[in-house]
Amino acid sequence: MGVYHLGSRAVQDRVGVRGAADHVGRAIGEGIKPVAAAFLELQPLLIAGAADPATGRVWASPLAGTPGFVRATGSRQISVAGGPPPADPLATALAAPGTAVGTIALDPRTRRRMRLNGRLRPTARGFAIEADRVFSNCPKYLQKRDTYEITGRTPGPPVRTDELTPAQAGFVTAADTFFIATVHPAGADVSHRGGNPGFVSADSPSELSWRDYPGNSMFLTLGNLTADPRAGLLFLDWTSGTTLQLTGAARTEFGADGERMVRFTIIEAVETPAGVPLRWSAPEYSPANPERAR
User: Fold this and answer.
1) Residue 223 is inside which H or E element, if any?
2) pTM score, two decimals?
């Protein structure tokens, strides 16, 4: 497969950005450059996305640790010390050899992010990923958080439901950031979505929606959804560490005015109190965020 598969090409052509996508796509490579390796070693958080081999459901999961727990161990490989807790919905996938996994390392302090996708290999200390795609993104829609601390809090037991509770709906609509995991015939991918609080709407206990803001013209996420509607979302409380993981299916609606709306139908939700041991400072919203979510 080239830089883009047919799903991404279909969206690019519909929006009319194939030329721009070809230009930006030159940044996608297989190797981890020294600056990217140095960036990874400074991060206390990595988001991983994959499909559960037993259920086929796609999830996005947070992995946290002392900086250095993620590091480049070669020009095309990263190693991760540790992994998700046994109750995490991705625990089985992230222990299975050959799992197609997408990752994103996002640094709110610098508004930088890096994506690395590939195939997983379990190791004695966690797992390694042999990269087939490595690239960085622009800081658009990424909220700045200046500092963080690693707390000693213990995660609470995960609570599983098949739709959002009223409190979880409020959690979603108050969010300024979430992560979305998608899959395609050759692999998996994780991306970031951001905006001012309210940019995600809880339309019902089983459906969310958000406007797809203009980005880098690659349309990797929407392209994946065109090929396979399965997706996993991760919402994170940057203060308490509580996580809300959702799995389901997403579809994109294209408006006559060129706007795009993504609608996500929930199959299962997993909320974990204090699921991440990081406490971040208050956000400074990205100047790229539209003033109104709608």
Assistant:
1) helix 220-227
2) 0.96
As given in the structure block, the two tokens for residue 143 are 């909220």
* Chain mean position to CA 21: 21
pLDDT at 292: 60
Q: Roughly how many angstroms between the first and final C-alpha of the chain, as a whole number?
A: 36
- Return the closest-CA partner of residue 155 out of 45, 279, 274: 274
Q: What φ, ψ does residue 41 adopt, rounded to 5°? A: -70, -10
Dihedrals phi, psi of 51, to nearest 5 degrees: -100, 135
Q: In a 10 Å sphere around its CB, with 0-12 CB exposed, 13-18 middle and 19+ buried, how is residue 93 labelled?
A: buried
pLDDT in tens, 71-104: 999 999 999 999 999 999 999 999 999 999 999 9
Taking a C-beta distance cutoff of 8 angstroms, is the pair 291, 196 a contact?
Answer: yes
Q: Which two tokens stand for residue 140?
A: 């658009």
Q: How far is residue 274's CA from residue 227's CA, in Å, rounded to a whole number?
A: 35
